[in-house]
Amino acid sequence: QVQLVESGGGLVQAGGSLRLSCAVSGRTFSSYGMGWFRQAPGKEREFVAAVSRSGSGTRYADSAKGRFTISRDNAKNTVNLQMNSLKPEDTAVYYCAQSTGGTWYRIPAAHPNEYAYWGQGTQVTVSS
Length: 128
Description:
Layout: E1 3-7, E2 10-13, E3 18-25, E4 34-39, E5 46-51, E6 58-60, E7 68-73, E8 78-83, E9 92-99, E10 115-118, E11 122-127
Parallel strand pairs: 2-11
Antiparallel strand pairs: 1-3, 3-8, 4-5, 4-9, 5-6, 7-8, 9-10, 9-11
């Protein structure tokens, strides 16, 4: 049984930082790319960032470029999202997701269909 458990969300003022983590169990972690998505109230789920199995390849939404950093630790079965310079429009529930597969250096796509398993989400609220 695959489980993804996010942590690290919370309330932060605009300009602040948060570090989200996602602990994964149930499958060989290093065999799958990983991604982060978010969903704000009344909006569709949107892509934030993705990382290859190796950890060397990353992809970001335009809204995340220069502010967010995705990373993974294959020894600890975790994927992280460091979020800096947070804005009120970053307020959302953040989900980590595990891709359906891929080669060692391939960066998962931004589309949700790329991902087979999802966490329950962690709330991030940025106050102005």
